[in-house]
From TrEMBL:
<dbReference type="InterPro" id="IPR027417">
    <property type="entry name" value="P-loop_NTPase"/>
</dbReference>
<keyword id="KW-0819">tRNA processing</keyword>
<dbReference type="GO" id="GO:0005737">
    <property type="term" value="C:cytoplasm"/>
</dbReference>
<protein>
    <recommendedName>
        <fullName>tRNA threonylcarbamoyladenosine biosynthesis protein TsaE</fullName>
    </recommendedName>
</protein>
<keyword id="KW-0479">Metal-binding</keyword>
<dbReference type="GO" id="GO:0005524">
    <property type="term" value="F:ATP binding"/>
</dbReference>
<dbReference type="GO" id="GO:0046872">
    <property type="term" value="F:metal ion binding"/>
</dbReference>
<keyword id="KW-0963">Cytoplasm</keyword>
<dbReference type="GO" id="GO:0002949">
    <property type="term" value="P:tRNA threonylcarbamoyladenosine modification"/>
</dbReference>
<keyword id="KW-0067">ATP-binding</keyword>
<keyword id="KW-0547">Nucleotide-binding</keyword>
<dbReference type="Pfam" id="PF02367">
    <property type="entry name" value="TsaE"/>
</dbReference>
<comment type="similarity">
    <text>Belongs to the TsaE family.</text>
</comment>
<dbReference type="InterPro" id="IPR003442">
    <property type="entry name" value="T6A_TsaE"/>
</dbReference>
<keyword id="KW-0460">Magnesium</keyword>
């Protein structure tokens, strides 16, 4: 599957999608999150991290730009890096911080506001777009690599219809 869309009627739907994605991701995956402020990008990431086994607080890395998490996936220690590039002044800031080294076959990178560093970011495996619609969200997942297609094929999610 290369493309998936759904309407999430309430926050519980966003949390359920995050949990479903957590069961489908593998090391080396890069996910871009698109959407306006308040669209649910951080909520989706938080749900993914908790479903992956992170017990602690998951904050938006708005001021730090990146928050690392050590997660166990099938007995393998995997680093998940949550980026929030909203406050980045330029794409060069991303390079100067040394963030590009995190994008490798062992790390899962989740990037909010990727358009702030388009020129220097590696391409995503999956683009996720969230749009506020009434009380809910429309979500679109688009795979753009073989690894992204594999992830979406593993995704088992039935939206709250």
């Amino acid at each position: 599957m290369q493309h998936f869309t759904a309407h999430l009627h309430e926050e519980a739907g966003t949390l359920a999608l995050g949990a479903a994605l957590a069961r489908a991701v593998q090391p080396g995956l890069t996910i871009y999150l698109h959407g306006d402020l308040g669209a649910g990008k951080t909520a989706l990431t938080r749900a993914m991290l908790h479903a992956m086994g992170h017990d602690g607080h998951v904050k938006s890395p708005t001021y730090t730009l990146a928050e690392p998490y050590a997660i166990d996936i099938d007995g393998q220690n995997v680093n998940v890096i949550h980026f929030d590039l909203y406050r980045m002044a330029s794409a060069e800031e991303f390079l100067d911080a040394g963030f590009r080294e995190y994008f490798n076959h062992q790390t899962i990178c989740i990037v909010e506001w990727p358009e702030k560093a388009d020129a220097v970011l590696p391409p995503p495996d999956i683009n996720i777009s969230l749009t506020v619609v009434g009380e809910g969200r429309d979500v679109e997942l688009q795979a753009s690599s073989d690894q992204g297609v594999e992830c979406l094929n593993r995704l088992k999610f039935a939206p709250n219809l």
